[in-house]
Design a protein that fits this description.
By secondary structure, chain A is mostly helical. Chain A has one domain. Chain A is built from 11 helices and no strands. In chain B, the strands form 3 sheets. In chain B, strands 6-7-8-3-9-10 form a 6-stranded mixed β-sheet, with helices on both faces. A 4-stranded antiparallel β-sheet of chain B has the order 2-1-4-5, covered by helices on one side. In chain B, strands 12-13-11-14 form a 4-stranded antiparallel β-sheet, covered by helices on one side. Classes of the chains: A mainly alpha (about 290), B alpha/beta (about 300).
């Protein structure tokens, strides 16, 4: 308010401004955009089925099909079935799919015009981004959390502490993946473009994160896998699910500390990029 | 009351890459006016609308809304303006009430204040019994009313409407204009509409006519029309070039040639028409005589038809 030339401002403007600070509200838009995201999701039944159904199907089919040819990774010192190995991978897949699908809605919001209404409101771009990310995160964590309730069927029993940490990890990972989706979706004009990116970038990102198969000890594939930031999100989840077993470091699975640092950096990068993109005033926002 | 202009634009230009969309526009809108931006599509009015609604960055020149600079005091400006876009900005999957509630939250309204504001808008726009309906189930006219309710919810001092009557039937159009006038009369609200429709521009108290990114005329519709002078005579002919020359020789006026027609502005048009038909019975196919319309104003100031791109 101090920047506004008070002498030139009509009295009623001042009252308006004192009620709504000149920078605009911060938390209320985040809350309202999150709620909108959830309401929209639950009004589209097919999205609920799509986000949970496909990974579940993958888990059952691949789990059964690849059972015979699976070699457990060196860090698993107990007899591990492929179904068990793939279990956290599917959880990450659910996170990713839900996060990605909820960011596709940015493209729809832009096309249908809802977004322009938000862009002319006195809402900081940070609030806008966080509102969208929180919405996607809640949906993703909800679904992945539901899936993880199946953990006991894989012989994974979580203590309260491990469950809490796992839940926190899901939130961090979901937030990161939603931000990644935001960065991809924000500059896009069409959902078709998004689907193309999804098959050439996002699916490989997941496939090469150790979610689907363990990386070997050497070779180009293991290089790619260790360069993939999602590998560390994946590893963190595995370590938390087996919190009790205390998997030793340096057995082909990144340590929890490394996983946390890399995932936080990945998260900060994606969120930072999202805010940067949303802050630019470009002619395409004005369509 | 303050004498601050609702909109004050000085030397505003905008380019998309190499293409100039606005060149050196300057004009002002007083508080409490219903102001129209008239121009053909591609004339620059949408660009100007986007600049005023803070969607595009100001490249050169300045624009102030109620004394606040659009680029320096952006979020202040955003609280002062209410924007009704041409394309819908409602979430079709949500109800009317939910749309308004989200809108209120975006502007920092909440609780009892917000509920009261929502009821007030629903009431004013005759939407009270529709609050629980999904937007997708409403007719185009009703949706536009919800858009307006949405734009007015935070009590803006300046309402910006982009082509507000697009997709509205004549009845709904009249309702819209009656409502805009009520709004202006009821409070300290300034209204700016963009339009490419002459009939709609007639409803505005003052107009700015934009053509190819330039401001070509500005003033009340009546004054603009009287500036054209006298009557407008439009002549169609099979031999326009020859007839034009003949008219110039005989009457010492040079007709404007617009899209194959000849056009003459002068006092005492009916006398002239008689002389004209007497003089060139063979060359003149039809003659139309009329008081100047905004269409004539546009032709008068630009030298080409409103829908120039189509005839060129």
């Amino acid at each position: 308010m101090s920047t506004a030339p008070v002498t030139e401002t009509p009295p009623s403007v001042k009252t308006e401004a004192s009620r709504q600070s000149a920078t605009g509200p911060f938390w209320l838009p985040i809350w309202t955009l999150t709620v909108r995201e959830l309401v929209r999701f639950f009004r589209q039944r097919t999205r609920v089925v799509g986000a949970l159904g496909q990974p579940l199907l993958f888990w059952i089919l691949f789990g059964a099909g690849l059972k015979g040819s699976f070699q457990p990774p060196p860090w698993a010192d107990w007899p591990m079935s492929y179904q068990e190995y793939f279990f956290p991978g599917v959880a990450v897949m659910i996170l990713m799919f839900t996060a990605i699908f909820s960011t596709i809605s940015i493209i729809e919001d832009r096309r249908e015009g809802f977004l322009q209404g938000v862009l002319v409101a006195p809402v900081s771009r940070l609030s806008l981004v966080l509102g969208k990310l929180c919405g996607g995160t809640v949906l993703a964590v909800l679904q992945a959390g539901l899936f993880l309730l199946l953990a006991p069927t894989m012989g994974i029993h979580l203590t309260a502490a491990a469950a809490t940490l796992t839940f926190a990890w899901l939130i961090l990972l979901a937030f990161t993946l939603t931000a990644l989706g935001f960065v991809i979706a924000w500059p896009m004009d069409s959902t078709q473009g998004f689907h193309a990116i999804m098959s050439v970038f996002l699916m490989p990102l997941w496939l090469l994160s150790g979610a689907f198969f363990p990386g070997g000890e050497s070779g180009w594939l293991s290089w790619i896998i260790s360069a993939n930031p999602l590998t560390y999100g994946m590893a963190g989840l595995r370590r938390l699910l087996y919190f009790e077993r205390e998997i030793p470091d340096g057995a082909g699975l990144p340590s929890l500390a490394v996983s946390l640092v890399v995932t936080c950096l990945f998260c900060a990068t994606c969120v930072g990029l999202s805010v940067y993109l949303a802050r630019r005033q470009v002619s395409k926002d004005a369509r | 009351m303050s004498n601050t202009q609702a909109i004050d634009i000085q030397g505003l230009s905008h380019r998309y890459g190499d293409r100039a969309a606005l060149s050196e526009i300057s004009f002002a809108v007083s508080s409490g006016e219903i102001f129209g931006l008239l121009g053909p599509n591609g004339g620059g009015k949408t660009t100007l609308f986007r600049l005023l609604s803070t969607l595009l960055p100001i490249q050169s020149g300045s624009a102030r809304i109620l004394g606040c600079d659009i680029s320096a005091q952006q979020s202040m400006v955003r609280t002062l303006i209410g924007v009704v876009f041409q394309s819908p900005s409602l979430d079709r999957m949500l109800t009317v009430g939910e749309n308004l509630r989200h809108q209120g939250h975006l502007y920092g309204l909440r609780g009892a204040t917000l509920r009261q504001r929502i009821n007030e808008q629903l009431d004013r726009l005759g939407l009270s019994d529709r609050a629980g309906d999904r937007v997708a189930s409403l007719s185009g006219g009703l949706q536009r009313r919800v858009e307006i309710a949405k734009g007015l919810l935070h009590h803006p001092r300046l309402l910006l409407l982009d082509e507000p009557s697009t997709g509205l039937d004549p009845g709904a159009r009249d309702d819209l204009w009656r409502y805009l006038r009520e709004l202006r009369d009821g409070g300290d609200v300034t209204v700016l509409v963009t339009t490419h429709l002459m009939e709609e521009a007639e409803n505005c108290e003052r107009l700015a006519i934009l053509d190819q990114g330039r401001l070509v005329a500005e003033g009340p519709p009546l004054k603009l029309k009287s500036a054209v002078g006298g009557d407008c005579i439009t002549i169609t002919s099979d031999v326009p070039d020859q007839l034009s020359q003949q008219i110039a020789e005989r009457f010492h006026v040079t007709p404007q040639q617009i899209g194959g027609n000849l056009r003459i502005e002068r006092e005492g048009g009916h006398e002239f028409v008689r002389e004209l038909v007497d003089a060139f019975p063979a060359e003149v196919s039809t003659v139309t005589l009329g008081k100047p319309t905004l269409q004539d104003v546009f032709i008068h100031v630009t030298g080409h038809q409103f829908w120039g791109e189509e005839s060129a």
